[in-house]
Amino acid sequence: MRAAVGTAPVPYRHAMTHGNHDDQSAGHADGKPDATITRGRDYDKTPLIVTWEVTQACALSCDHCRAAAIEGRHSDELSTAEGKALVDEVAGFDPTPVLVFSGGDPLERPDLFELIAYATERVPTAVTPAPTPALDRETVARFADAGVRRMALSLDGATAERHDAFRGEAGSFATVRRAAAWAAEEGLDVQVNTTVTAETVDDLPAIADLVADLGAVMWEVFFLVPLGRGAALDELGPARAESVLAWLYDHAREAPYRVITVEAPQYRRIATARSNGDARVGSTRAGRGFVFVSHTGDVYPSGFLPVGVGNVRETPLSDLYREADLMQKLRDAAEFTGPCGRCPHRRQCGGSRSRAFARTGDPLASDPLCEWVAEGLPASRSESD
Predict the structure, then answer these.
(1) Contact (CB, 8 A) for 33 and 271
(2) Whether the Cβ atoms of residue 82 and residue 297 lie closer than 8 Å to each other
(3) Residue 53's pLDDT is what?
(4) Cβ pair 317, 86 in contact under 8 A
(5) What are the CA-CA distances from residue 358 to residues 222, 263, 361, 365, 376 (Å)?
């Protein structure tokens, strides 16, 4: 029987690093990567990821949904022409970011494949369809034929019963497994996304095995931000989160796929310590390498940080990303307050700005999920370990 993940310290092992990706940065003992420049990309000027919520409509009622998605489409969604204009703006960044078609469920938009075909000719493109009956073999084949580079599928339980309950849709687990198999047949890369809550955390080891069984190239592990319907779920405590992140990093060094975390940037601090400063892990956070465009064109630092900085119907996306006051502050660790502002890893980590906002109303406050924050950053933490 497996031990519960993150309930006991995991022994250190020799570091293994994955292939070079421009969203990875080497861990530094002083917690100071090269300013905002990561592998040739200056995050002050260009994001690595642009996520476009093409619609808020979705047939599912997932427990954790940040958007509290609804069945019908919004009457003021960006039009097809406006969507293509947004694609052109994304393509105008240098280097070019990855454009992610998200939702809701992107398949609820009747013009989705027209938009994807336009995008794949201009930018690297990924899509995150909901695991509903609409995600059938023909749809997966159309994604591949259109030039989509990666399809993200959500897996939040190790069994059909647990996953389907979390997703609010009987058969969702089976849909994910079928879609992954069809993607393999089509030569389309698959990424698996998992939400970590107090309810799902003990499933992580078994989900990790399923990620390998599905042939995924990446496992994206999202630590719950209490937003939307997710506000009713229980988060992990800081100590448990710390041990889970340590387990994830040790697992990642032996897994046949890459592991990244979302809204848990302390993973970088932990990875640095567990690899003697030689880790290469994700380097983005809200507003720093990442930007979110809503279904109506409003721009946010992240889909989990609902503080708007403008709208692409009125202001170019590049101007909002580079010049908006909040975006600039989120990229400047000197603006952070409390323990996050004093932490020697504030540039490398910086804490979840989304969770800071959700819990305090201030996106520059400290991230309460971090164990160092919970301890008040005692003197023993004032210098890098």
Answers:
(1) no
(2) yes
(3) 96
(4) yes
(5) 15, 12, 6, 10, 19
| Burial class (CB within 10 angstroms; exposed 0-12, middle 13-18, buried 19+) of 2 | exposed
And the tokens for 100? 């992610």
* Residue 254, number of CB atoms within 10 A of its CB: 8
CB 351 within 8 A of CB 360: no
Amino acid at 293: V
Looking at the chain, how many residues does it have? Answer: 385
* CA proximity to 156, closest of 81, 92, 60: 60
pLDDT in tens, 179-195: 999 999 999 999 999 99
Contact assessment for residue 259 and residue 221, using Cβ atoms and an 8 Å cutoff: yes
Distance CA(160)–CA(195), nearest Å, equals 16
Q: Regarding beta strands 280-282 and 258-262, do their DSSP bridges make them parallel or antiparallel, or are they unpaired?
A: unpaired
Rg (CA), the chain: 20
pTM of whole model > 0.90? Answer: no
Q: Inter-axis angle of helices 172-186 and 160-167, to 10 degrees?
A: 100
Q: Which residues of 211-232 are buried (b: 16+ CB within 10 A; e: fewer)?
A: beebebebbbbbbbbbbbbbee
- CB contact set of 92 (below 8 Å; sequence gap of 6+): 318
Helix (H) or strand (E) holding 46: none
The residue among 201, 211, 204 whose CA lies nearest residue 153 is 211
